[in-house]
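Thread: Newbie trying to understand structure tokens

Hi all, I'm a second-year student working on a class project, and my supervisor (Dr. K.) asked me to get a predicted structure for one chain before our next meeting. I've only ever worked with sequences, so writing a 3D structure as a token string is new to me. If someone could post the tokens and maybe explain what I'm looking at, I'd be very grateful. Here's the chain:
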Amino acid sequence: MSQQLSVVETFHSLQGEGLHAGRSAFFIRLGGCTVGCAWCDTKHSWPADSHPSRSVESLAREAASAARDGAAFAVITGGEPLHHNLDALTAAIRSACTLPVHLETSGVDPLSGSPDWITLSPKRHRPPRPELLSHCHELKVIVHEPADLLFAEVVSAQAPQAHWLIQPGWESSEGQQLAVDQARSHSRWRLSLQSHKWLGVR
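---
Reply by user tm_fold:
Sure, no problem. This is what the structure looks like when written as tokens:
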């Protein structure tokens, strides 16, 4: 029987943040998250049973259609996508098209699926698993207050292979100043901004 996943939404837009910002991307937002970030901008995704179930094959077909329309990669996001086993979804996408598969995760669950790119956005109140730190390609730490910078130093030391990005919390003036200062003063850190919000695109 085909695997069914709770899906909040799918859409083709631009990646708004991180190292791949500005590139055409097809997003699959899965439902369910127990991480509980107070600043989360997709809290509607938290209850998995509030969203329709879809087969991995239907999601893969939609990814293939987005590829024909110019998408450069597929992004599996959430919610917290690793609350689900992603083996079948990544396999289905690869069977349907040649899009690289990117995963955006907080790293609280074991890694599943076979993503080509892992963006790890760890949370101070729910630290990530060591294997996600050692496997991620991109470490993106959200900053609201000085304690977040200390956390960024701790997790980055465990992810020497990754690109390090520091991102201010949305509408956090303190976080913005801290992130700018961190990127300016430390050559390994790069500033990441939520450009899709500035542009008003999905």
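A couple of things are worth pointing out once you decode it. The two ends are 33 Å apart (CA to CA). The domain at 4-199 is CATH 3.20.20.70 (TIM Barrel). Feel free to ask follow-ups in this thread.
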